[in-house]
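Lab notebook: predicted structure, single chain.

Context: the supervisor wants predicted structures on file for every construct in the current expression panel, including those that have not yet been purified. This is the next one on the list. No modifications to the sequence; it matches the entry in the shared construct table.
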Amino acid sequence: MTTTTMSRTKTYDMVYIAVLAVIIAICSWISIPTTVPFTLQTFAVFLSVGILGGKRGTFTVLIYILLGAVGVPVFAGFSGGMGILLGQTGGYIVGFLGSALVMWGLEKVIGRKTWALAVQMAAGLIVCYAVGTAWFMVVYARTTGVVGLGTVLGWCVIPFIIPDVIKIVLALVLSKRLSSALKMQQ
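Prediction complete. Output recorded below exactly as produced.
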């Protein structure tokens, strides 16, 4: 690979990472009004890793979280700042990074075929739920009082399972189509 080709590839990588970090932010602002409203953040996280692969997808999620941490309003409800990350639901945002890391690790083990990407996304969702739920329980206990795991799962996980599975299916289909359309080098 020539220096010019390597430089162009790095430039494309930076552009793709930046664009997908913006897409995660935009998807965090989209709230679907159901009995329990939900955003499209997890969809965009899975889409980013699905399109860019584990390494670049993880950098995308990290950049999104860092933008929010410094106060850029990229989180749900046009919010940002460390207060959001350290709040009750901040663990789910941090869990996005855990999701991307798990997807990256599994990508190295089982590859990037469609079935493998589906397994990676499902595992990533489980990690996001685990990190976010544990975080919620700790913060809630400090601010309000001890709460049981079943109660937290009922508040923070169970209502979101079906929408999140739908988001995984959509992210899987779109990431496969967009990856080939962009001819991403994995």
